[in-house]
Amino acid sequence: MNREPILQVDNLTKLYAAGKGCEAVSFDLYPGEVLGIVGESGSGKSTLLNCLSVRLAPDEGDIHYLTRADEWVNLYGLSESRQRHLQRTEWGIVHQHPRDGLRMGVSAGANIGERLMATGERHYGNLRQTAQSWMNDVELDIARIDDKPTTYSGGMQQRLQIARNLVTHPRLVFMDEPTGGLDVSVQARLLDLLRQLVTEMNLAVVIVTHDLAVARLLAQRLIVMRHGRVVETGLTDQVLDDPQHAYTQLLVSSVLTS
Amino acid sequence: MQTMIEVQGLTKVFTLHNQGAIKLPVFNGIDFVAKQGECTVLFGESGSGKSTLLRSLYANYLPTSGSIVVRHRGEMTALTGASSQTLLEIRRETIGYVSQFLRVIPRVATLDVVAQPLRERGVNVATAHAKAAELLEQLYIPERLWSLPPGTFSGGEQQRVNIARGFIVDYPILLLDEPTASLDQRNAAVVVDLIRQARNRGTAVVGIFHDAEVRDAVADQIFHVNPDRQEDSLFTDERVPA
Asked: Which one of A195, A239, A242 makes the best mutation probe of the B interface by having the most chain B beta carbons within 10 Å?
């Protein structure tokens, strides 16, 4: 793992009310590292993710990001167009509901190709070929490349959303409950896929989940949040097997085992 | 022989915050050293804290006080208080751990499960698969099972997959938590062989073995965890040096 982080978060705060939102969050993220953010609903996980991915301006704090060009930038010091450019070319955002991340009105192939076009690719043949190859990677039937995502099942839509995000070879991916609404059998497949892609592409990932099993399988490191604050951080297996904070202990002991 | 692990004054107390903050002391002020090319067996009755100690050596459990220092990239490096980055690096390069239970992503094929630690170190697929196949063969896992996920295997088979995965990298330090627990004699003998080979390569092995035969076959040093706790039970076991 590289010694230099790709993202540095310092004292990030976004509060809607006391204990609502996220407060004084600091961490570093390294290339190739998957950081899990866990906690109950309303603990501020999604607020934090939105702040990190420059979709929600924080009240306080800084986020520094190391660009592909090896330049440190202060994300909220950038112009809006520069922020959007980063989002499109260097980042991926995988939403919990695929319809928030997909364009439902255009074909699957166009959904994948669109992001590529944003980075300058114009050749139709290349676009289509890349789209096919990505459909293959995420185990979607290539024969359905011209179908709209509305005709896809939830699991297929989620895989399409992942392909759409990864096609531009992002360096940093934000995921909000990526396996949330999915059937367990589909979940396992998706987890395996994500794990492989993360390793192969050396992605840095911030993944928000309330599913501790998902966190255990994907994340090397965990942040546990409660009432907007970080109550515990550490290696994933250490946090889950030997939780130190009362809330983490409650969280871990509340999981149903089959 | 070089010191690979040095434990000083290690104390572990579990605090159960949701059960009235009850405190469960496990061990207090443990000191021990594990050396290159030696196998240290942690000994003590069930509940004496052997597994807790072993897990602490892997930074899976967080010690309450005391220190654990391991030789990593030639330098003695503290596990206690180390950053997550350092711990992950130490786990990738220096310390291997074979737990009692296999925990993997449901759909992944056995061969990939075993090859994974090598892949994470950047070894190519072909080489990693070849090494994985060699180990699986040695551990009598029939080839027709290699392409299947191990989730449906028997307890003993899963255990052997786990062992193959643990031994696929030549870690300088190897931690074993009852690797022979659900194995028959033939397979236990293979594990004993693997441990001896690792030791001869210079690996510092630290393990828990309930099977007295296996223990006798591999132990260079026996470390008694919490001897005070078991005065009335196993203390008279003659295999244990005073």
From this structure: A242
